[in-house]
Amino acid sequence: MENYDIVVVGAGPSAAFLAYEVIQLDKTKKVLLIEQGKKVEERYCPIEKLGKCTKCKPMCNITCGFSGAGAFSDGKLSLYNKEDDDIYIGGVLHEYVGVEETKKLIDYADQIYLKFGADTKLEGVSYKEEIKKIYDKAKKEDINLVNIPIRHLGTEKSHELYGKIEKYLIDNGVKILFETTVSDLVIENNEIKGVKIRPAKYAEEEEYNNDETIIGKKVVLAVGRKGANWLVKMCDKHNIKTTAGTVDIGVRYELPDKIMENINKYMYEGKFIARPYPFRDKVRTFCQNPSGFVSTEVYDNNITLVNGHSYKERKSNNTNLAILVSHNFEYPFDRPIEYGRNVAKNLNALGNGNIVVQRLGDIYRGKRTWDEELKRNSVVPTLKSAVAGDITFALGYRTMTDILKFISALDKVIEGFANPDNLLYGPEIKFYSNKIAISNEFETSVKNLYSIGDGGGLTRGLMMASASGIQTARNLIER
Ligand SMILES: Cc1cc2nc3c(=O)[nH]c(=O)nc-3n(C[C@H](O)[C@H](O)[C@H](O)COP(=O)(O)OP(=O)(O)OC[C@H]3O[C@@H](n4cnc5c(N)ncnc54)[C@H](O)[C@@H]3O)c2cc1C
Hints:
The chain has helices spanning 13-25, 47-50, 93-97, 99-115, 128-140, 155-171, 228-238, 257-267, 336-350, 360-365, 371-376, 397-411, 462-478; strands spanning 2-9, 31-34, 76-78, 143-146, 150-152, 175-177, 180-188, 191-199, 212-221, 242-243, 246-256, 271-274, 283-289, 293-299, 303-309, 318-328, 356-359, 387-388, 423-431, 435-436, 449-451. By secondary structure, it is of the alpha+beta class. 54% of the residues are buried.
């Protein structure tokens, strides 16, 4: 049985930055990352060539492998405004380490991204007056506009950059086991002792009984949204404390660049947040991709979700962005992941396993969208595998009402935002697990077991996930 000082489950940005920081602090520490996906250089999504999702086995290449969901992400690194006394984007890390410390962590992580080749240009820092005008207009519609500087890597550059980080870690003694799934945790007397592993191709096989054990003094769960479902099972099985979590459910919205021209130019990404009546749920835009492409990702080998990205070089004529509604559940049902999965399953069934696309105008007219109509539509879908249909059959009344009200309100800020030819793709769902209860050092209720990144609900984005990894390394080395 192999023995490590630090074992990390997953090799996404949170894990990679943890390992990077351990190298800076103490090279003698034996660190192991266990990742069910492939090396970053071997990750490839067939949809580019084939025009449809082939549901890669054993794991989706978009979400799994070195750098996790970061490899094919648009690579928008959200920074912060110096004058802000809060952190508005990327999760709740600041609730554990404080706002000032979080800003320092972001600065430090940003320097690492720059060191490995990130673009030095920042978006959203010029055009102050123009942004203020949009902000004021939005305020009149009860919409808040959060504008923070963004460093945009671009999908192809993200891949390259994370490739360099992967090489750096391996060259500096970090061991990474690829295509290996952590199937279980080894916990004795409420203290972590290690993990059980198996080849990723047997991840879902209940009959499989050749699991190996890896001993770790400290184990860090850095499983991302991809591992959220697995995390729920582990929490249930081992009584790891959780608090009620959130699931974000919504659509990917695609419209002409022309309509989004000013937002794209002044901010690259407009982060609009509102709480429309009657439900007052939090509705927000997220992950905006100017001249981008709508994409898919597969979860647990059977759920197809929509997403979006943009390249530095390759361009479309459309902007896409997520419109997400945050849903929380309490007694007697507190299983946000299960709820989200059911919505996704229903919508996937309506699209015969594919993403469903519908014109906004058709929703207002109370009808589905047909293929022929899509071919004549002025907004040409960039996701070729999407199937024309009716997303309102599967998204609940509450979610749908929130989204439509939000679109109408934003139309008064961005002229053309509610044009009937604009497209809604579904389902776009962000799973965050039930939030894992952690200490200020990210330790769970099980001794020496930590939870970081997106999976346990601490972060919601590349920069904050990376920052959570850096902070964890410091916590672990100091202890
Ligand atoms: C298409 C797309 C575009 C995005 N664009 C942006 C963007 O522009 N800006 C932004 O800030 N964020 C973006 N995101 C989100 C961002 O990628 C995530 O916030 C970030 O990657 C989270 O990092 P993480 O380390 O917490 O988890 P992840 O990156 O999800 O990594 C977790 C890793 O753990 C592995 N894993 C899970 N369970 C197990 C197990 N049991 N055994 C072994 N391995 C396991 C997974 O395979 C995965 O590789 C995007 C995401 C996607 C999918």
